[in-house]
Design a protein that fits this description.
- InterPro entries: NA-bd_OB-fold, Rrp5, Rrp5_OB_4th, Rrp5_S1, Rrp5_S1_rpt_hs1_sc1, S1_domain.
- Keywords: Nucleus, Repeat.
- One of its GO terms (molecular function) is RNA binding.
- By secondary structure, the protein is mainly beta.
- Helices cover 14% and strands 36% of the residues.
- The strands form twelve sheets. Strands 1, 2, 3, 4, 5, 11, 12, 13, 14 and 15 form a ten-stranded mixed beta sheet that branches. Strands 6-7-8-10-9 form a five-stranded mixed β-barrel. It has a five-stranded mixed β-barrel with strand order 16-17-18-20-19.
- A hairpin with a 3-residue loop joins β51 and β52.
- The protein is globular, with a radius of gyration of 38 Å.
Length: 1269
Amino acid sequence: MEVDFPRGKVDKKKQQNVPRKPVRRKREKNLFMTERSKPKAKKRKVAKSGDDDGKKRKIEGSVDAHGAVKIELLNKKTVCPGMLLLGCISEIRDYKLIISLANNMKGVISITDVSDTYTSKLQQLAEEEITEEEGVHSLNEMFKVGMLVCCKVSETRLKVTKQILDLSMNPKHVHENKTAKFLKNNMIICGSVVSQEDHGYIIDIGVPNTKGFLLNKNAEEYIQNMVDGESLMEGQVLWFCVKLKADDDLSTDSLHTIHLTISPTKISKTHINVDQPMTFNNLMPGVCATAIVKKASEYGLVVRIGNKICVIHPTHINGNPTDYKEDQEISVSVLYIQPETKSVYLTMLPHLLNYNGMVTDIMLDKLGLGDIIDNAVVCEANKKGVYVKLPHALTGLAQKGNLSDSKVQKIEEEFPIGSKHRCRVVGFNSIDNFVMVSMKKSIIDVPFIKIRDIVPGSIYKVEVKFVKDTVIVVKLGNLKGLIPALHMADIPLKNPSKKFTEGDELECRVLSVDMKDNKVILTNKKSLVDTKLPTVHDNSQIRKHLELDGFIVMINNRGVLVAFYNNIKGWVPLSELSEEKIEHPEKVFYLGQVVRCRVKNYDEETNKIVLSFRKGPRPKDRKLKEKDTSVPDDFEAGKIVECKVKSKKQELMIVSVTSTGKDAILYKAHLADFDDLCDVLWEGLQEGDILERVVHFKCTNKIIVSMKPSLLKQTENDIIPTDFTELSKDMILPAVVKNIVEYGIFFTLTGGLRGLIPMKVASDNYLPYEEITNYIHVGQSIVVRITHLDPDKRTFVGSMLTRHCFPRSSDKAAILMKLYLENKEMVTNVLSAGQSMGGLLLKMKEIPVGSVVTAIVNDINTDGVSCNMSNGLSAFINNDMLYDIKPVIGDKVLGVVLSIDLIKQRIDLSLDQTIVAAMKNSETEDQIQQLNVDENIPAEVLQVNFNYYMVSLRGKALGSMAYVPTKHTINCINELDLYPVKQNIHVKIHSVYNENLIALTPLHQIKSPTPNNSKNKKNKLYLSIGGVYKAKVKEIHPIIMNLDIEGKPGRVHCTDMVDTIQDGHHPFSDYQVGKEIMVRITGHSKIKKKEEKVAECTAKPSQLKGRLEKSSRSFPLKSSRRVFIDKIDKDNVMVNISSQRKGIISIFDLSDDLMILENLKSHFKKGQGYNGEVVGCRGRSKIVFTFTGRREKVSEGETTKCYITDIDTESKEIKLSLPARHTAVVKLSTDIKKYHKGQWLWCQVTSVDDTENKCSVTLKKSRGWKTDK
């Protein structure tokens, strides 16, 4: 018998002698009354029957008492300790969960209130008994936003001042004072994972002497859908469905083990029948049941579940409450329980009734935070606020405080039903299924809702929250702002609390934005807030002679450091502090002082800014200014002109415009749209060469010209916006990358207009700043779409997303390939007219790609075979293109032309005799005409370029060759690994450009969605994690090997192939397509844009047996690790440590063999393995390695490696690059012809200047050779 619920007949005399019972009835009754309402009756009707014990017929609670008054929803007055609530996870932080509750209330669950198992794990981690890798998972790993949780109001930390509650989801707290008797079959309860056993998981449900057991088969569906095949995590709290057996006797106090299931399908169907005996003790938040309507009114519904009377608030009822009839059966779920009055509140909302234990489907993703709705229709208005109809059949709620900036007297009159209003989304209530909106004009007009929308230099009104001597904390919309002591006023304040008080409204300007800590740093200096000068927040906005207002952040005896917005700083030397000489700046200036300065000099490469406090430039500076800014009268952005090369310097050319005689600058990156072709032109152009088609790109204080075909084509279409007013939203334009910063990419249009691409729209798959810089560089050609214009600030924002820039995306890859061929044709035409390579190119033009030529072998080395041709040209045959032919010096070979290498001035050949024979016996033009567009044709990869594959078509197209693009668009920055040479693929012919076939792989073709097949879905099998399978090699890429595992896709990373590696060996070199390999499943990943999952595998012998080990996260100095080559750039080599982690090696630490360093790409190939030694860490995640056993450094008296970056033949000086970005210049006394650009040398450091990164060196013949002075 339950103590709190007396059974049977009630003795009225005894009832009068017991003081607690009348009090209890009164409290239960008053819960649903207003404060002023009076109790109407003190008696409770009880079924009278002398022969009945009352256990089945006695109803807990009074129908009349509940239905007579308005039902109150959860609020801070009704909350009490021990209250059980159904909540939804709305935010996950490092150490707590933010929970959304009914009636827009919120709660917080601390990391120590999750479960006993998880708290124990945290304690062991704090005491260093275990490491993080041994199973302590983060809250982000265990939970997802949108999950429902059952939680309890903490009895010791109740906070309701701001409608924020301290909660616990620990099953031990939630099920406190419960016994095994309260468990019912098909009942939903919460529990935490204690441990994983051979056949399943032990579950803690928080009930004494009772534990749960979850069989592996009952967890399989949840694991596959929610955790991608990974095991459940210890300490994780989940929903379970109770499965009691017929012989389970829970009435005794002995130990019990009950069976549970976590299957989403079964949990969503969990339901307690109306006839099943239920009491107050059996009801828990989240439990679904059938209820019988006892009374319906405008105030809500009074229903019965078992023998318990419950209520439903109108906001949690489907439709109008008065439409429901007495004794009607309805489906409900428990929303929350009030323990003091033993009142149970229910919900009928579908997303809560049909919850399956995973993430709620409330369709709020159709509206984003900050979205503005112009015509929201009022559907209800009451004293709490206004309900409106929103797009996508959603309902919005504007609470009373969000209706207007002024006080609203009569809500119903000012917001009549059917009226339309403008509102803005400010949040979401996941429990009540409302979109929280605001109709305040101040909220609608604010230019931001999220912190990433705030631009440094912007002005906002803020509200003071509290004041300290060191900082003022302010409220900026819904964000936190800080005003440092240095920026409270124009002059330092000793007692800021006397000037500022809580609630003050200030107008401040944003200094910087701290995305990590979600804070905004502001200034209240009126001289900065009211300035009329430009506010710069990016180095790309800096230009010579620009006047700015800044503030002093450092003073020393050499000058003053001035800061601007977004932490941009400039240096004012002593000579520029004043017209008069100032010997002691600290006596004249003070920290925080606002100063007006002028940009005297700006170095775009180093971003160093030199400033001046002088009112105007010195006389000699003024002459220089007039000279620099002299622009020809006929300068026109986008005009195509002829130029002549005057000189070549590092990364730029000085050219002369033929029509005007004025000098202009042509950067190396502006020679073409693709980097490899820029290199070709840079090497081939010489002084005196004529450039017939050059476009005026921009002109500030100097003329910048470009040869990029994408910009030349734009000029032909006459789309050159030279002023901000000529721009319009959704314009798609070619552009050039100007600068890359942490929050975005600055770009320049033809004409000089500059815009910003926020990092979130810089790539289709979001990449952070550290990774995006590996793919994007200054000077790169891109396509942008204008997405936002700010007429007041005359700024604009663009996007690089494929769906924005290439809306007609079916031909985007073919367009990119055509652009590359246009660039290549332009390069060939320019060099053909030049002095250095003109004759050579004329010969090469006579030998088109795909033609058959004869060559004589003259040299054989490790990379391939060198040949001479009859016309004097050189040819080269890579080892992969020999096809089992073993020529010797002097042999004649017959090969087909693959490509023309203009830098090395040679022709690349293939000796595949099948292709040679087909080429000789067929006419290319006829062959092209016979091929059908979009026809699927087998092909073999012959040559791999960063931008395209050269493939040989097979089948009926044998004898034809085609170009296949490696990327989708010119903006793509994170494409798949390239196919290796000799890879068999299928392509579709797309088009013909200048007799060159363009073909596409399936990766470039849009596939129509396939209809869902319920039978296939039902019979779908999954590869179990930890299982060992025999697989077949399907495709081999340099980093990834794709597998077929019993008809399912799988893949293995090169780092997961071997336990030990021999330097230079590729782990995939021992495998061919079709070969079998034993692998073990380590996890599952979802293939992008596909429904199926791919199995992640390991082939390491040590991992095929025993327990799967996670990759080590510890990298002690001087420890050895296996690394695999990923990417080689100018200064470093990126390596793979694992499939998830990368490392970096300086090119100086790759080898002590100078010949190897001169030919890096031929010795270090993608996917090759090496044994590296850990020597440091760069940033937070990149581990630094060396292959030489040490880290090369620049120290006085030490010998080190260097390489030649530039040679001046007139002065006989060579410029050297040394480790740690140091440079040196050496004047030669010997013949300078012995040296060439890119040559590696040994040198001895004689002196080092670390401030300028310069040093003095003397050259040596070897590392041990004495210096030849």
